[in-house]
Design a protein that fits this description.
Blueprint: E1 11-13, E2 16-18, H1 27-34, H2 56-59, H3 66-70, E3 77-79, E4 82-85, H4 95-105, E5 111-120, E6 125-133, E7 138-143, E8 146-151, H5 162-171, E9 177-180, H6 187-195, E10 199-204, H7 207-219, E11 225-230, H8 233-239, E12 245-250, H9 260-266, E13 267-280, H10 284-298, E14 303-316, E15 319-328
Parallel strand pairs: 4-5, 9-10, 9-12, 10-11, 12-13
Antiparallel strand pairs: 1-2, 3-4, 5-6, 7-8, 13-15, 14-15
Helix pairs in contact: 5-6, 8-9
Length: about 325
């Protein structure tokens, strides 16, 4: 499952076995992924299997200038067996060298890709440049035991939303009807239906995203049911039954504000809206609270309570992807 860092030795000590992981993980995540409960997480030193540079910075000393070394990416996204690097413009001429060097150090990744441009268009996709390894953009990504079919070139997916997918699924109760308005490849839908007897209507305008969701449905043993729908969110809500949904998920932070009135049409009294937006400033929590309150009011509904306001991830300097869980009345 691409959890083990193969560049370090396993350690047997005092009748215990220690496994080096490729990245920091939570107890809940590993319990779901490995189907194990009798283990502990911690930090320790591991002996390297081979000597040599441990980072691309170390490996490229002497090959890049001091200024170029300082600009090297220090983090990456892990999607299944694909590593995605964000290489700054000033290092464009070294992109292949950086990708090949990265894979020589992190041999557990099959493919190294570089981000190319921003997320854009109604299908919310971005371009990627092949840097090293196997030339592909599709993989299977695992979150809390949920297997997700992903093709980075065809449909939006962010591994940085792992905890958000899990937190929303933890709030779901048996018997709910959930509408996931911008489902993408369906991580919220799969997480919600994995262990709960729910019905999720998963809507996305991108037919490629829905095809990937259908693959994920086939790969997982779901307690609940997922109905994938190819549709624009406005058009779906126009024809949907009024106040039918117990929960509406709106993970489209650059555009969800345009669909609040649609969500308010289909959500029942007492239902929960998970509203996502990009917010900056000194107090983004208050800004988001005021914005969603006004949007709901303009749609003819009201907010009974705001259960959670959270900074999901950094999206830019001094800007966050935020979520507000609001109870609609």
């Amino acid at each position: 499952m691409n959890l083990l860092d193969l560049s370090y030795k396993l350690v047997s000590e005092n009748e215990r076995l220690f496994f080096p992981l490729v990245q920091e993980s939570t107890q809940e995540e590993l319990e779901g992924t490995l189907d194990l409960t009798d283990f502990e997480l911690g930090t320790r030193e591991f002996p390297a299997i081979v000597s040599g540079p441990r980072t691309i910075h170390e490996a490229l000393v002497g090959k890049l200038s001091v200024e170029e070394l300082e600009s090297l990416p220090r983090a990456y996204d892990l999607v299944g067996d694909i590593a995605v690097l964000e290489i700054p413009e000033e290092l464009n001429k070294h992109r292949s060298l950086i990708g090949e060097t990265f894979q020589s150090i992190h041999t557990n990744f099959s493919t190294i890709l570089g981000k190319k441009g921003a997320i854009k268009g109604t299908t919310r996709t971005r371009q990627y440049e092949f840097l090293a390894g196997e030339d592909k953009t599709d993989t299977v990504h695992i979150e809390y035991g949920c297997r997700l079919a992903v093709d980075l070139a065809k449909a939006y997916f962010s591994p940085r939303l792992l905890e958000e997918h899990h937190q929303v699924a933890q709030k779901v109760s048996d018997g709910e009807l959930i509408v996931d308005l911008f489902t993408g490849v369906g991580p919220f839908a799969i997480h919600a239906a994995k262990n709960k007897d729910v019905r999720v209507i998963a809507v996305d305008i991108n037919p490629e995203a829905i095809k990937l969701l259908q693959k994920s449905i086939a790969m997982n043993k779901l307690v609940g049911r997922i109905d994938p729908v190819v549709s624009d969110a406005h058009e779906y809500c126009e024809t949907a039954e009024t106040q039918m949904a117990d929960r509406v998920i709106m993970n489209h932070p650059s555009g969800a504000f345009d669909y609040v009135s649609d969500a308010c049409k289909i959500i029942r009294t007492g239902g929960t809206m998970h509203y996502y937006d990009f917010v900056g400033g000194d107090n983004p929590e208050d800004h988001l609270t005021n914005k969603i309150t006004n949007l709901v009011k303009a749609s003819g509904r009201k907010i009974d309570d705001i259960e959670r306001v959270r900074r999901v991830r950094d999206s830019a300097p001094y800007e966050f992807q935020m979520v507000a869980d609001v109870i609609i009345t």
